[in-house]
Amino acid sequence: MDDTGANRSGIPLEPIPGVLVCPDAAEVARHAARRFVDWAWQAIAVDGRFNVALSGGSTPREMYRLLATSEFRMQVDWPRVHIFWGDERAVPPDHAESNYGAARRELLVRVPIPQANVHRMEADDPSIGRAAHNYEAILRSFLELDDRGFPRFHLLLLGMGIDGHTASLFPGSPLLRETSRWVSTPMGPKPGIRRMTLTLPVLDAARRILFLVTGRDKAARLRQVLLEKSDPPLPAQMVKPRNGERLWLVDEAAASLLNVEAAQTPPSTEGERKPVRGKGSKEPQ
């Protein structure tokens, strides 16, 4: 850290357990890509595949770009990776606001992943309710279930909006009380725009959840989510893996109200090991 209190080493600080702070958004993306690679090898070594749900928004796109570069692309056994989504807007896949479209442009067409391994949320289906039912069937056919009967991803990427929403779970939504459905189709904040989203019980079943949050405009909300109690709780506060790990990867701008300069906790070494290519590595249970 320099005399301004900023971290210039590139090594994330951990001011709060489970919250890693990188110098800037570029380092957030790089650190996320490294963890993606490591976690992919761990999952494949144990289960023979890596099931990951991607998020939308601008924050993860740089991570997708990095994963498609020569530095990272060949470190992942892409034929054993299965890609899903946490939420999607009811727009065509080539639309500028499509989460699938963004991931396809930045990552999927640039890596050797079989098309059969890419499981798009077809939220643009005129019958979005039927599409949600079909997506649940896809999850059921590819993912193991936890002890409560919900599908369990190896990794689920999430972001956080300035209102504290995550996936397409918005503050005050009745969907936050959902206890049985896996996939739902709420209205988004824009009138008339439907979305498709995984529900909280599915998010909480994941083995690992990685939140990516960048930008000073998120600072006050991030502090509220991590350090304060809200009544009712914000959606991002409600995501708590039942038998897994939750990690926040944020930049200094977003963490500016977390008292990062006083941090003494060294960063977690989980996920920082060299890629595991053999047996013996265990996923969180």
Structure overview:
- The structure is a single chain.
- The chain is α/β, with parallel strands linked by helices.
- The chain has a single domain (22-262), classed as 3-Layer(aba) Sandwich (Rossmann fold), CATH 3.40.50.
- Helices cover 25% and strands 15% of the residues.
- It has seven helices and ten strands.
- It has helices spanning 25-47, 61-67, 99-106, 128-142, 200-203, 219-227, 235-238; strands at 13-16, 19-22, 50-54, 81-85, 87-89, 155-158, 183-184, 195-198, 208-213, 245-251.
- The strands form two sheets. The chain has a seven-stranded mixed β-sheet. Strands 5-8-7 form a three-stranded antiparallel β-sheet.
- Helix 1 (25-47) packs across helix 2.
- It is globular.
Furnish the topology, listing elements before pairings.
Layout: E1 13-16, E2 19-22, H1 25-47, E3 50-54, H2 61-67, E4 81-85, E5 87-89, H3 99-106, H4 128-142, E6 155-158, E7 183-184, E8 195-198, H5 200-203, E9 208-213, H6 219-227, H7 235-238, E10 245-251
Helix pairs in contact: 1-2
Number of strands: 10
Q: Within the CATH hierarchy, at the fold level, what is the topology? A: Rossmann fold
Rg result: 18 Å
Structural class: alpha/beta
- Largest pleated sheet: 7 strands, mixed
Helix coverage percent of residues? Answer: 10-25%
Return the CATH architecture.
Answer: 3-Layer(aba) Sandwich
Question: Helical element count?
Answer: 7
Strand order of the largest sheet: 1-2-10-9-6-3-4
- Average pLDDT value? 89
Total individual domains? 1
Approximately what portion of the residues adopt beta-strand conformation? 15-25%
